[in-house]
Amino acid sequence: MNFFSLALNNIKKKFGTYLIYLISTTFAVTIFSIFCSIYFNPQFSSYRFGAGKITVLFSAAAIAIIGFSSIFVMYSNNIFVKTRKKEIAIYSLMGMKKSQIGRMMFYENIMMGLIATACGAILGVVFSRFFAMILLKLMADGTAVTFSIQWEAVITTVMVFLILFTISSLNAYRTIYRYKLIELLSAEKEGEKTPKYSVVGGMLSIVLIIMGYITAMVMNVNEGGIKLMIPALMILVCIILGTFLLFKNFIPMVMVALKKKQGFYYKTENIISISQIVYRIKANSRMLCMIAITCAVAVTMMSATFSMYKALESTVPYYSPFSYMCKNIDDEKLNEMLEVVKQTGEVNVTSTNQFKIIKVQLQNSTYSTETDNNPGMIVDGYIISQSTYQSIIRDTNVETGTFNNLKTDFNMDLKDGEGYFLDGNVKKDYCKNLTGSVMNLQFDNACAGFDIVGVSLHKYIGFMDSYLRPTIVINDATYSQYLEQAAPDDVVSFTGMMFDNPAGSENTVAALNRIVPENPVSNSVMGIANLSYISVYKSIFSMYGAYVFIGLFIGILFLLASGSIIYYKQIIEAHEEVNRYELLKKLGMNKAEIKRSISKQLGIVFGLSLTVGLLHSTFALLTYNRMMDLGAKEQHTMLNAGIIVGIYILIYCCFYLLSVNSYMRIAWGREK
Amino acid sequence: MPVLKVSDVKKVYGSTQGGSVSTALNGVSFEIEQGEFVGIMGPSGAGKSTLLNVIATIDTVTAGEISIGGQDICRIKEPELSDFRRSKLGFIFQDYNLLDTLTLKENIALPLILSKKSLKEIEAAVKNVSAELGIGDILGKYPYEVSGGQRQRASAARAIVNSPELILADEPTGALDSKSSKDLLQCMQRLNEKNQATIMLVTHDAFAASFCKRIIFIKDGVLFMEIFNTGTRKEFFDKILKVLSSLGGDNSELF
Question: Chain A 38-97, CB below 8 Å of chain B: which residues?
């Protein structure tokens, strides 16, 4: 039996303890490996080498994940080595050379590292397929993707973790040299000192956190660049420092105060759990702070990206209100189109709308296009009949609302000489005061004034009119008079179709585009020839889908990370506390009482960090909400965040229950 | 030549951390000859454990010299220190310090395995010591499967398996019931008388100490008194109690 076989023997015999370490490190490797295989996938190479924001984001995510992996591996390794200190001391006392002990620890750690790297790399390859599919779905890239094993990714993962595990193994190797024998021998006996807290620190933590929150609430989010960076950095420093001091000083302060309230303290479970927490708080403070911040990052990331995803989805009708739209289609062609949709068999047509609008010129002393910013100018615009507009509202399921690009409040009967104004601008600056004034309409060298009885920012034809011109809705009688006078060139006729599932209409749209002419015959000044929900959806999500994916990915990563760190730490503590619970058992505490005590104790640890984390993310999201423009604000960031927080708490609860169970199993021990 | 020679040993704690300084040992000198069974006693905080730790090379002295078998242990460095511990010292601790991953047999054999002894030698030595300590039939078990007394006897077996020059025992009976204590102490006495093993026993228990041939009392970090066992164990026990009461230590725990 030499020290190599001793190391092997240790791993075999104490597999249970090693397993936790192995699982947590394997987990870190897997996450890294998944990210790598996405990062190195040739399909996403443009994100890696481009110059856009997504490249920056991608690189930032890569750095975040490397950072996380290293911290996680080092942390697990430190805890792991700590549990071995006494064993090392005994070997040393038995006369094993320091160099031999060092080598034994090194072998042991590097073996575990190799196993973790191998398992993680394999799991990573398996799961990356799954994650890449999600990413592509989010980016709506649609094209068939070949999933091959990315050797670059595997090699990078293996290299990174070989380095990490070599460092951590060297760290284990050094343990015997770093500590005196007497320190190693009494490593277990040595408890954490009773918490020493400073009241100043406790108060400072509250002040810092409040300061961070206030800064977040009042900062000018419309600034860019460095002006945004300074308050953002300040908030970050305030919150992180504040959280650290909170757990180091304020929480122990509260706990000690609770301890003084004897009526509360001297209850079976309270005395155990509170004394336990007070006893452990110092070592826990750093972990709790870390968990709270990871939790805040995870919740904020996931909520922000989730509501961004929702917001993106809801902006699609802004560009393409109909599922499919084209221009100048006669009845024969329309029948052909309907036949094509039927043949493709992908979606069903729920409604078809063929309508016309007439080109006119408009003028009002206060109105201008946003691009020209010249009030009183003559603008190109359209007129549309009341019944046509109503049919569009009906077909495209427009919601009621004022001053919104996706909503309208039109539900009136227009009299002669009255008009409802549909502004082409994005913001309400030029139309908000138009109601009650007169819009001059120039057509065929004749001029007429219309009293504006209502305005809306509704974009009823989306980007079919890429110049975003204004339109006046007038009653059907007046409209038909204009239509009679209009030259063929002045009239644009549209065909809009609604599908029952526009998001799945890819093949249908492709087939339709083949029979609908790309360039319309008429030399219309208006934008593009055809427009579809799916094409807009795809172009939006190919632009922003990666953001959503990376946000969600990092969020989930951080969630799992915080959960597993806290779980890991509790298990280690449980092993250290076995004797204490053995004693309590002898003193007559029954299983249910011990379980209640453990649940309470872990509840405080999990609950505290979760509460603080959620509080942080609430303020972060409120600020994020202010940063989003009008459209996204409609999307209730907080509601979406609520959904995410709900899911988060659920997963977190699973970690909690798992921890309580494992803790209990260790503390109650074998039934004798 | 004495097996152990402690001359003017001082140990001061706390100066490196910059905190308050406390003196645990303030110039202790004594010798232990080959084949002696010496007890170290004293009230709590007298420096018993510190003395044991510095002799055991677990801790370092602030000043003074300690030599074991003529070798100055304060001057040995790694890797000679490991060889020294392996060949010259045997340890018995209050909390056994057995490795949970190894069976009792493997635990006992550990010092021999580390000395790269042949399998035959190891088998013979383990068989020999385990028979002597009455644990021959439980060698295949793991430490958590046997009683405290059995664990402590296994730990004693490990301490003597390589016939060290000096066996250091730190409150070995501290966690044992009186029956197991007596068994263990009688084993140690036998080892001392039959095998001429030199034993230094640190204890606060007068009963345990009464098995020794000589007892050194220390108080406040200095040597206070020495007494010898000249008559029966009962007489020696009474003598120890007298000294303890004169030490002013609270010995009510003994009754």
Answer: 86-87, 90, 92-97
Half-sphere exposure of A15 (CA within 13 A, CB side): 3
Instruction: Return all residues near A503 (Cβ < 8 A) that are at least 6 apart.
Output: A533, A534, A537
Nearest CA in chain B to A13: B101
CB A509 within 8 A of CB A366: no
A353-380 burial: b if 16+ Cβ within 10 Å, else e: bebbbbbbebbbeebbbeeeeeeeeebb
Amino acid A134 reads I
What is the pairing mode between strands B199-202 and B166-170?
parallel
Instruction: Please check whether residue A520 lies inside any domain of the structure.
Output: yes
Tens of pLDDT along A349-365?
888 888 888 988 888 88
Q: What is the C-alpha to C-alpha distance for residues A571 and B149, in angstroms, rounded to an integer?
A: 30
Using an 8 Å CB-CB cutoff, list residues of chain B that contact chain A. Answer: 53, 56-60, 78-79, 82-87, 89, 91, 97, 99-102, 110-111, 113-115, 158
Which of these three, A190, A218, A246, is where a domain ends? A190
Does residue B171 register a pLDDT over 90?
no
Residue range of the domain that includes B131: 4-254
- Best interface-test mutation with A: which of B114, B163, B167 has the largest number of A CBs within 10 A? B114
What local confidence, expressed as pLDDT, does residue A631 receive? 47
Nearest-CB residue to B111 (from A14, A95, A98): A95
Q: B73-112 pLDDT, tens per residue?
A: 888 887 788 888 888 888 888 888 888 778 888 889 888 8
Range of the domain at A19: 1-190
Nearest CB neighbour to A98, from listed B79, B91, B102: B79
Q: Considering its fold, how many domains does chain A have in total?
A: 2
Q: How many residues does chain B have?
A: 255
Partners of residue B102 in chain A, C-beta under 8 Å = 9, 13
The reply to whether residue B85 touches residue A93, judged by beta carbons under 8 angstroms, is yes
Angle at A504 between CA A502 and CA A507, to 5 degrees: 105
Query: With contact defined as beta carbons under 8 Å apart, do A329 and A593 qualify?
Result: no
Q: What's the CA gap between B238 and A175, in Å, rounded?
A: 47
Q: Is residue A207 part of a domain?
A: no
Question: What is the reported pTM?
Answer: 0.66
Q: Which residue has the higher pLDDT, B213 or B74?
A: B213
DSSP string, A219-257: S-TT--HHHHHHHHHHHHHHHHHHHHHIIIIIHHHHHHH
DSSP state of B95: T
Backbone phi and psi for residue A419, each to the nearest 5 degrees, phi listed first? -140, 150
3-state secondary structure of A410: coil
Alpha helices in A587-636 (DSSP H): 591-627, 630-633
What residue of A is the nearest CA neighbor of B82?
A95
Q: Per the structure block, which two tokens stand in for A65? A: 């994940």
The CATH number of whichever domain residue B83 belongs to comes to 3.40.50.300
Q: Which of residues 172-231 of A touch B (CB under 8 A)?
A: 180-182, 185
Measured CA to CA, the distance from residue A488 to residue B169 in angstroms comes to 112
- How many folded domains does chain B comprise? 1
Which residue out of B97, B117, B165, B171 would a mutagenesis test of the A interface target, given it has the greatest number of A Cβ atoms within 10 Å? B97
Nearest CA in chain B to A672: B145
Residue A4 distance to chain B (closest CA, Å): 12
| Terminal alpha carbon distance of chain B | 40
Residue A246 inside a domain? The answer is no
Name the residue among A14, A92, A182 with its Cβ closest to that of B53: A182
Q: Which of B53, B110, B151 is the best substitution to test chain A (most A C-beta atoms within 10 A)?
A: B110
CB burial of A502-541 (b: ≥16 within 10 Å; e: otherwise) equals: beebbebbebbbeebeeebeeebebeebbbbbbbbbbebb
